[in-house]
Design goal:
Length: about 90
């Protein structure tokens, strides 16, 4: 495989991004990850409400498309951490 990498810029969005060629094994390591997705709902007459979602990688893209809340952060996490947090509320997955 020809190795190629670099930095690019989306002028219209004021965003920089790194790009490179990868093989399938590199992509596979992301398949079973979980993410903490932190969002906020802003209200006019009551305090804002922050929600933390635990989303498996295979559902992340659809979740981000359909969730109307304002995104604050996306943090990679492990299944064991998700299980530990949920177990505090007697939820098991």
């Amino acid at each position: 495989m020809i190795h190629h990498e670099g930095i690019s810029y989306l002028d219209s969005d004021d965003i920089y991004y790194y790009h490179c060629h990868v093989d399938k094994n590199e992509i596979e390591k992301y398949r079973n990850r979980w993410y903490k997705v932190i969002c906020v709902i802003e209200f006019k007459n009551i305090p804002d409400h922050m929600n933390t979602y635990f989303v498996p990688q295979q559902k992340l893209e659809e979740f981000l498309k359909s969730n109307p809340e304002r995104l604050l952060d996306i943090i990679p996490t492990s299944l064991s951490e998700v299980k530990e947090i949920l177990s505090k509320y007697d939820i098991q997955i």
